Fold this sequence. Notes:
Layout: H1 8-16, H2 26-70, E1 71-85, E2 92-103, E3 109-116, E4 125-131, E5 136-137, H3 143-200
Antiparallel strand pairs: 1-2, 1-4, 2-3, 4-5
Amino acid sequence: MAATKGSPTDRLWTAFVPRRSTLRRRSDRVETAARWAALALLVVLVPFLLALGSARAQHVRDQADLVRATAHPVAATITRVVPHLTPAGGPPTGSLDVTASWTAPDGTVRPVTGIELHPVHVGDRWSAWVDAAGHQVRPPMSDGQAALEGLALALWAFLTTGLGLVGLLAVLHRVLDRRRMADWDEAWALFEIGRGRGVAG
């Protein structure tokens, strides 16, 4: 079914495939060509953006492997639970700031902290990662989390590139619109002059 004339689908289609008209100007053809060039560039960049996301995912996996090789999880006991606030001190986000303690092999009690997304209480067992010296480190990401982070980066890069191209097209449209208005004013002035001469004649 053909799109209704003037509908969003119709406007999108005619932005790339304009209807034939003797009124189309060179600036109209330039703008259409620019849209196609932007679309082609976005399509060409897709494999590179996917490669960027894949590289990011692999980097996260490598970092996770390094953590697993140099650190280990310990079982700690939660000693404090408070709602996690936004950086600006706003309302709670739904997650929890957890403080816990664990006993090192030498018998010293050491604190660990983190953010927990699930309900926990003081006295619950809680897992944290520490290095060989007993210092807390960030837990390694899973392969699924690494893939998700890579996908998020690729999507962010795609959207940023797309928005940048849309912005450039908007600037071009404005410049060409000014040129079209100037051409229209010039054509109208010539028409008025010609009509004045015709009346005078």
